[in-house]
Each structure stands twice: as C-alpha cells, then as structure tokens.
UniProtKB/TrEMBL annotation:
SUPFAM superfamilies: Flavoproteins (SSF52218). This is NAD(P)H-dependent oxidoreductase. PANTHER family: CHROMATE REDUCTASE, NAD(P)H-DEPENDENT FMN REDUCTASE LOT6. It holds the Pfam family FMN_red. Transmembrane segments: none annotated.
Amino acid sequence: MRVLGISGSLRAGSYNRQLLELAGKLLPEGVEFEVYDRLADIPPYREDAVDAPEVVADLRNRVSASDAVLIATPEYNGSIPGQLKNALDWASRPFPDNSFKGRPTAVIGASVGLYGAIWSQAELRKVLGLMGAAVLDEELPVGQADQAFGADGGLSDTDGEAALSALVSKLVDAVRAPTAP
Ligand SMILES: Cc1cc2nc3c(=O)[nH]c(=O)nc-3n(C[C@H](O)[C@H](O)[C@H](O)COP(=O)(O)O)c2cc1C
C-alpha cells in the first residue's frame, strides 16, 4: 500500500510538513509513504489550458498511483492556502473522473493559533468531498504549533500523537475495507 502525503505549506520549517512526516512514521509497517514535493511549481489554474503542464500531469499521476492521500494544511485567513487550493483545482479535472475520485483521503493540520487549523481542515474536507474523494470524517488539530513538537519530531502532547496514529490507521483501514460511496 502506498500513501501520498501533501503539505499545504511552502514554508521552510513548516509545522505542517513536520506533522506530515510524523504521520508517515506512524503508518503501519509495510505501508509506503511519499511526501509530494512539487507544490511550489504548480502554475495558476487555467480552465482553457489545452494540455495540462507536466507538473500537473505528474501530480495527477502520483495521486492515481497512491492508495490513499493524507493532506496537512495550515490555516490562512480561516481557509486553506491558495497554492494548495490551486493544485486541487487542477487535480479535480477532468471532472468527475479525476485522480481523487473515490480515493481514501484524510486531512490533518497545524497552526500557531489556538485552534489548530480547524476551519481550514473543514474547508479542505469540503473541497475534497466536492472533488469526489472518499474523505475521512476525522480531524487532527495541532494548535500552538510553534510549541507542539519535541526535539525528536514527535508531538509533546502524547494524546495528540495517539490521535494522529489512530487517524492514519483509519486511513489504512479505509483502503483495506472501502465503504460504499
Ligand atoms: C497569510 C497567513 C494567514 C494566516 N491565517 C491564520 C489563520 O486564519 N488562523 C491561524 O490559526 N493561523 C493563521 N496563520 C498562521 C499560521 O498558522 C502559521 O503561519 C503556521 O505556521 C503556518 O503553517 P506552516 O508552519 O506549516 O507553514 C496565518 C499565516 C499566514 C502567512
């Protein structure tokens, strides 16, 4: 089984990237984890583009080659970062038969605010649901992210790390035993 991880932040030292990498380590043994690394290269979406740029075709291929997708999103002004939304707009086409269709997908998020990107996680689940992904009805808010990680890259809050572990297990379960759409 292969899980594709996408961080919605382009920031060097991103807490969401850290959270995603931690989630990858908590996946059951034998599950391959790839972190998507080309978000910054995705051009602005154009509906009249005849052929998708190579980087977009690559994104769609990587999503299609995965059994599940895990996205870590920051909150920007109560919503998801524009570059993440732009990439998902590309990935949503052609609609409805896009690379996310029916694919188990989970959302997690970190922010330096108190609420742990809870609004952006809800917005992201909405976007993914409209795209046709099989979105897990779970969230993993990491608030005060600037203080949330220990030197080993784990979460200082052991309950939070257990919740992250449970969430990635549910994502794996969703691949092994898909529910009817
Ligand atoms: C444009 C912008 C808007 C932001 N809006 C919010 C917000 O609405 N809520 C929040 O909790 N944090 C907000 N933040 C702070 C982010 O939580 C913080 O920058 C966080 O570290 C981003 O995630 P990253 O570490 O993965 O880059 C905002 C940051 C930026 C740059």
